[in-house]
Structures are given as C-alpha cells and as structure tokens.
Specification:
The chain is an alpha/beta fold and 191 residues long. The chain is 35% helix and 16% strand.
Amino acid sequence: MDPRSIRVGVLVGSLRKAAYSRRLAGALARLAPTRLQHAIIEIGAMPLYNQDDEAAAPAAWTAFRDEIKGADALLFITPEYNRSIPSALKNAIDVGSRPKGSSVWNGKPAAVISLSPGVIGAFGANHHLRQCLMCLNVATMPAPEAYIGGADKLFDAADDVVVPATRDFLSQFMQAFDRWIDRFVPAVPSR
C-alpha cells in the first residue's frame, strides 16, 4: 500500500444489494485517484439508536464507531427517500455521534453524492445530509456538488458508468475530493 494512501470510509445510504448507490460506490473507487483506498462501511445491521443502550452498547455500534474512527475521510452516497435520507443512514449518523462528547465524525473531511432515477438527482437528500453533517463538524466538501439523475441508465453490466459526461464529472469530483482531503489530512503516516 502506498504510504500516502488515504482510507476513505464509504457510507451507502441504500441497503439494497443492487442499489444504484452501492453500484456507484464501486464505480467511484475505480474513477478515483489511486491513493484513495475505498472501503464500504456497512450500516444495515445496527440496531436503532437508543441512549438507554449505551451502558452496554451493542457490538454493531462499537464496530461501526471503530470503522469510522479508522477512516481518514468519508464519502456518503445516498438515494432520496421522501425528500430526505434513508433511515438506516440517519441511524448510522446518530450512532456515530453518541455518546455526547465522543462523536466519531468530528473533523473528518467528507463528500456527498446523491443519485436517483429522476432528473433532480436526490437534491433534497443531498442537502438534508449536508445539514446533519454540518452540526457534527464534518468538513463536507462544498463544491462541486453532485446530484446524479438517471441512475437507472447509468451503469453497464460491470457497474461502470456508461454516460461519458457523467463519468467525466465523477472523475473530476473524485479529484476535487482528493484535493479537499489534503486540506484536513496533511500527512498520512506509514501504516
């Protein structure tokens, strides 16, 4: 592994195995600069956050928090459910933000991509997620913004992006994210 490698924790908002969000996560890993090492951090098995359970935190919460702590940067890829983010993603955000004073999100550089089959590319979810991340002190890349429409026509059988303009935009987005990370992760030590 390149000593300059950046561990990017990828949070996929949809739990479907063949979700457009999950397919895009794989495509982005292939389009990104090689030093960005992507790893999907699964969110579907976590029990709903309940502060009463903190005394004996579920193992899934602890494992999730440890994975986020181990990431140098975060990439959120989400669909839109009812003009907002999916409940599993909101639960993951809540689990990572607790207990009070121990948020695993604090100061992490991040980027947000939303997508949908519709033309507005899950604009509402994108902005709602950004609002949640702002209050947790996640350094979310402000530009370029990424709202990807037409997700149902975006991929080939190997889950590569087949729309040339979208593929070029996503490649540029990942290059911008790489530069954004450098503002917050000045030197990554050898692992």
